[in-house]
Write a structure and sequence with these properties.
The complex is a heterodimer. By secondary structure, chain A is mainly alpha-helical. Chain A has one domain: ABC transporter involved in vitamin B12 uptake, BtuC (Orthogonal Bundle). Helix content of chain A is 73%, strand content 1%. Chain A has a two-stranded antiparallel ribbon. By secondary structure, chain B is mainly alpha-helical. Chain B is 69% helix and 3% strand. In chain B, strands 1-2 form a two-stranded antiparallel sheet. Chain B has a two-stranded antiparallel sheet with strand order 3-4. Chain B starts with a strand and ends in a 10-residue tail after the last helix. The chains are: A mainly alpha, B mainly alpha. Chains A and B meet through α5, α10 and α12 of A and α4, α9 and α11 of B.
Chain lengths: 307, 295
């Protein structure tokens, strides 16, 4: 890991460890869940060049899976999260096999359509309780002895999950697998001619991204004790695109910064109703037209260091 | 009462009609998307918002200026199309050298802005739009009751689709357009102003969406969200048809509308998802789409 990234990692860890002293911890837990979600999304677009416009389906599926497992089946939290994640991974495998058959714009449209299909499924299925969602999900006892009803126990758990997910993604993008992925993004034909089974690499990246998005969704459900349709709606898929774009596509720390900015923004604008959507739209337009490197990308460019 | 496959014919033909109506809008919207994609290589995510704008401008024309449906049909497409021209000149034209995905992201952002602005102003509840007096009522066909306005929508959209197909495939202007789709640099070298053609094409695609919006206003209620979910279905329609051919998008649009209508009769639970399921099946069998060619 280059020194600039070591420092950034230290800053990030210190921020999430010290911030709860001054900021509302539930807000920070939400931010960490979305940061992990955005990092998982960035793995696909930033390093694989695949723009998924349907990542909400993994967040929503894992959320419903974890909520159902914890509330109806009485799973302990660690198994509820595992079950939710496994559900997202399975969905990732099935949708991935379909979506990687097309590239570019088509890939985005296909993932969007598949996610909308899942949304309608959750809208109609009985176990999701439709518009009400699965409410009052018990947080339970982690490993049988840590009571997650305690906010600091929950905070530490979310922090541990977030850091583990983040470091895993870091490891993946700097592994030989990640290098091949970048090669495919840059020039797919050449990667094929070098003998790489391009579809397998793409599917694996998609599956990994879906699984980690699932971890974020399942964790978020335990934090808020709620799984609802909002997490599966297309606007959520748009939001994660926005976080990653604003933070910096293909940067390591960008999605985390982007998630923090967008979540704070929504927090402040919440009373203003439709203005949230308008502000999100404006940020999209500004980022695409003039700010394509994103916040962290710009800082990294200015420092001439990879971030 | 007569029945077909255990379903009363009235219900069957009723849903078939609704399917054809929905299919008309799928066809009009996917046609606009295909025309824009052909020349700009951009998937216009704002299409649903522009369809909504069409309905809203028509609504405002009656409520503020007292101009009815036929005026709206004439005025709205050029007005909304002109906003498209502005968007193309100010924003989209800056992105042609970049990855096509940026066009998708930009138009997605624009859709959020437009839908948010209208929601701020008019809330989320639907606003009624009066049926034109000339087309109210309906006729009894013996096996079903056919409202005149619905018949008009189907006939008009088929007409618009065929006219668009004719212009693109059979006229000189259309041949320039198709040539520019294949090789813009070469066409420009022959002295044709390609950037202006691109601008006008985007404007035309947007006008088509707005026209669909006006036609939809008396059937569906006018609301800021009316285009948001529709456009996702239209994306699936586009994936199924493939964007290679104009006639392909028209046929796929109508066909899927009818299939969706029939699903409502025989298996209503799946009517929301049937188009997405068909998309998944088509991707497995023919990834390029029914009428598309794999690049």
């Amino acid at each position: 890991m280059p020194r600039s990234q070591k420092i950034a990692l230290g800053v990030m860890a210190a921020f999430f460890l010290l911030a709860p002293l001054v900021v509302y911890p539930v807000f920070l837990m939400k931010a960490m869940c979305f940061a992990l979600f955005a990092c998982a999304f960035n793995l696909l677009i930033g390093f694989g060049g695949l723009l998924s416009f349907g990542h909400a389906m993994f967040l929503g599926t894992a959320g419903y899976g974890a909520a159902h497992a914890a509330k109806v089946w009485g799973f302990p939290p660690e198994f509820a999260i595992l079950f939710g994640t496994a559900a997202a991974a399975l969905l990732g495998l099935v949708t991935g096999l379909l979506a990687i058959r097309r590239q570019g714009i088509y890939f985005a449209m296909i993932t969007l359509a598949l996610a909308q299909m899942m949304y309608f499924f959750y809208l109609q299925a009985a176990f999701t309780h439709g518009e009400d969602g699965i409410q009052a999900v018990p947080r339970g006892m982690l490993f049988g002895f840590i009571d997650l009803a305690n906010v600091w126990a929950m905070y530490s758990t979310v922090f541990a999950i977030f850091m583990a997910g983040f470091l895993l993604i870091y490891r993946v993008i700097h592994s030989p697998f990640g290098q091949v992925l970048k090669a495919i993004r840059e020039n797919e034909q050449r990667a094929i001619s070098l003998g790489y089974d391009v579809d397998r690499y793409k599917l694996l990246a998609y599956l990994l991204s879906a699984t980690l998005a699932g971890v974020a969704g399942a964790t978020k459900t335990l934090v808020f004790q709620l799984a609802s349709l909002t997490d599966a709606h297309w606007s959520m898929s748009g939001e994660v695109v926005l976080m990653t774009l604003l933070g910096g596509l293909g940067t390591v720390f960008g999605p985390v910064a982007g998630a923090l900015i967008i979540i704070s923004l929504e927090n402040y604008l919440a009373q203003l109703g439709a203005w949230v959507t308008i502000v999100q739209g404006v940020i999209f337009v500004i980022c695409v037209l003039t700010f394509r490197r994103g916040v962290i990308g710009e800082i990294g460019n200015w420092l001439r260091k990879p971030l | 009462m007569t029945e077909i496959f255990g379903v009363p014919t009235q219900a069957l033909f009723g849903q078939l009609l609704i399917g054809l109506i929905n299919g008309s809008f799928y066809a009009l919207l996917s046609l606009g998307l295909a025309v824009i994609f052909g020349l700009l290589n951009i998937i216009n995510f704002t299409h649903g918002a522009q369809y909504m704008m069409g309905a809203f401008v028509a609504f405002l024309l009656t409520s503020k200026a007292g101009l009815g449906y036929w005026w709206a049909l004439a005025i709205v497409p050029p007005v909304v199309g002109f906003t498209g021209v502005i968007i193309e000149r100010l924003m989209l034209s800056k992105l042609y050298k970049l990855d096509h995905l940026y066009g998708l992201l930009l138009t997605f952002g624009l859709a959020l802005i437009i839908q948010g602005l209208f929601r701020n102003e008019y809330g989320t509840s639907g606003l009624p739009y009066p049926m034109p007096a000339e087309l109210s009522g309906g006729r009894n066909l013996g096996f079903m009751f056919l409202p005149n306005y619905r018949a008009w929508v189907i006939v008009a959209s088929i007409g618009i689709c065929i006219a668009t197909w004719f212009v693109i495939e059979r006229t000189k202007l259309g041949s320039y357009l198709r040539a520019a789709t294949e090789n813009p640099a070469l066409v420009q070298a022959f002295g044709i102003n390609v950037p202006r053609m691109i601008t006008l094409t985007y404007g035309f695609g947007v006008a088509l969406a707005a026209l669909a919006g006006v036609m939809a206003a008396p059937i569906y209620q006018v609301s800021p969200q009316m285009g948001a979910d529709l456009i996702i279905v239209v994306f699936a329609v586009v994936v199924i048809g493939g964007m290679g051919s104009i006639m392909g998008s028209i046929l796929t649009g109508f066909g899927l509308g009818v299939i969706e209508g029939l699903t409502k009769v025989f298996y209503p639970e799946a009517s929301n998802t049937v188009i997405f399921v068909i998309m998944a099946i088509v991707l497995m069998i023919k990834p390029a789409g029914l009428f598309g060619t794999q690049k």
